[in-house]
């Protein structure tokens, strides 16, 4: 059975890109894989944040993941900060990471450009992400395209550590979904749909009301043309709508393009598909959100199981790198 992991950072609201890019790809095959799903709350501390927002969103994200179908009996499901082994391995991996290597990460360059005060944790965030992955002997990391470079770093660090200190880590690889690995912003279709930078009109939030979802899709930026073709370069807005439709309905966006004459028809089909995809998740979310104590019990049990597994990897790593056993 392949071992797989993915995480979601509770900064901003979860959107359709998160769902199609990572949530559905890890949840779908969860009964045929050894799966770890977690809320990466420590990653939300890398930019200025309100403590109460991070706490509220951590529970909201966990509730949404359960609503989207995470089966806590089949997966390891927890909050990152409840498993202190993540930060312990983070430090040990910092000791095999080059400073320049961390600085070269595209997301660090983009996010640090927007900050006046850059937190050191923003620079070292991909090393924490490598720790998340390497702790659980992961083979595959289903993520959207924007996280591919970080998974490459985890690969590099695992390979380097093994070569220098002896076989310790499994070397993981990123897997991107075939369609919708990079869902774009509806009002700025050259930018990715983002929790932190998309405007309210640009992102389809998982908890948006059906009316809001429809309105945003009907107002999505297309272009001056009239015929529907799949051309991400010249017609990124239309290609994005086709990707979203393809992602929701499991069809190839190029084939779908041939079935529409006008943009209006395409938008109506996209709106129907998105509302149909999200409605059952929203319904389960409302039921679960009424039982926060149940969600917290599930997370507590998950953290206990995760610590056992992660503790084993940390012991192995400490021994390999030269720390005296207690
Ligand atoms: P995060 O919270 O930014 O995003 C969660 C997942 O959603 C994917 N994603 C997208 N996919 C398609 N289109 C988009 N517009 C889009 N936007 C986001 C992301 O690629 C991601 O898979 N650092 C990670 C969380 C993390 C993690 C990990 C993931 C922490 N540790 C270990 C995998 C393994 C992050 O902040 O993702």
TrEMBL record:
Entry GO MF terms: ligase activity
Catalytic activity: tRNA(Trp) + L-tryptophan + ATP = L-tryptophyl-tRNA(Trp) + AMP + diphosphate + H(+)
InterPro entries: aa-tRNA-synth_I_CS (IPR001412), aa-tRNA-synth_Ic (IPR002305), Rossmann-like_a/b/a_fold (IPR014729), Trp-tRNA-ligase (IPR002306), Trp-tRNA-ligase_bac-type (IPR024109), Trp-tRNA_synthetase (IPR050203)
Origin superkingdom: Bacteria
Residues binding L-tryptophan: 132
Residues that, per the record, bind ATP: 9-11, 17-18, 144-146, 183, 192-196
Localization of this protein: Cytoplasm
UniProt motif ('KMSKS' region) ranges: 192-196
Key words, A-Z: Aminoacyl-tRNA synthetase, ATP-binding, Cytoplasm, Ligase, Nucleotide-binding, Protein biosynthesis
Main location: cytoplasm
EC number: 6.1.1.2
Function: Catalyzes the attachment of tryptophan to tRNA(Trp).
Subunit: Homodimer.
Recorded family membership: Belongs to the class-I aminoacyl-tRNA synthetase family.
PANTHER family membership: TRYPTOPHAN--TRNA LIGASE, MITOCHONDRIAL (PTHR43766:SF1)
Name recorded for this polypeptide: Tryptophan--tRNA ligase
Biological classification of the source: Bacteria, Bacillati, Actinomycetota, Actinomycetes, Micromonosporales
This protein's encoding gene: trpS1
């Amino acid at each position: 059975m392949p071992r797989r992991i993915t995480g979601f950072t509770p900064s901003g609201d979860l959107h359709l890109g998160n769902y199609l890019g990572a949530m559905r790809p890890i949840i779908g095959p969860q009964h045929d894989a050894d799966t770890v799903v977690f809320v990466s709350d420590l990653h939300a501390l890398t930019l200025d944040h309100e403590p109460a927002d991070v706490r509220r969103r951590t529970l909201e994200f966990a509730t949404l993941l359960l609503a989207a179908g995470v089966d806590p009996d089949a997966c390891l499901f927890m909050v990152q900060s409840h498993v202190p082994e993540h930060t312990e391995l983070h430090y040990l991996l910092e000791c095999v990471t080059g400073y320049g290597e961390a600085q070269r990460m595209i997301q660090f360059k983009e996010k640090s450009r927007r900050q006046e005060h850059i937190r050191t944790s923003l620079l070292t965030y991909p090393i924490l992400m490598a720790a998340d992955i390497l702790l659980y002997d992961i083979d595959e990391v289903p993520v959207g395209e924007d996280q591919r470079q970080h998974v490459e770093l985890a690969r590099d660090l695992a390979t380097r550590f093994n070569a220098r200190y002896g076989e310790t880590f499994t070397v993981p690889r990123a897997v991107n979904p075939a369609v919708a690995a990079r869902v774009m912003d509806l009002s700025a279709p050259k930018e990715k749909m983002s929790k932190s930078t998309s405007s309210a009109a640009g992102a389809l939030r998982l908890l948006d009301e059906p009316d809001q979802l429809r309105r945003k899709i009907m107002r999505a930026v297309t272009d001056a043309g009239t015929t529907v073709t799949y051309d991400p370069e010249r017609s990124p807005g239309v290609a994005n709508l086709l990707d979203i439709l393809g992602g929701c309905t499991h069809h190839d966006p190029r084939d779908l393009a041939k079935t529409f004459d006008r943009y209006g028809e395409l938008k109506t089909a996209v709106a129907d598909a998105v509302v149909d995809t999200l409605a059952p998740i929203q319904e389960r979310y409302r039921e679960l959100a009424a039982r926060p104590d149940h969600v917290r019990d599930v997370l507590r049990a998950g953290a206990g199981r995760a610590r056992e597994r992660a503790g084993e990897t940390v012991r192995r790593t400490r021994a390999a790198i030269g720390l005296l056993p207690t």
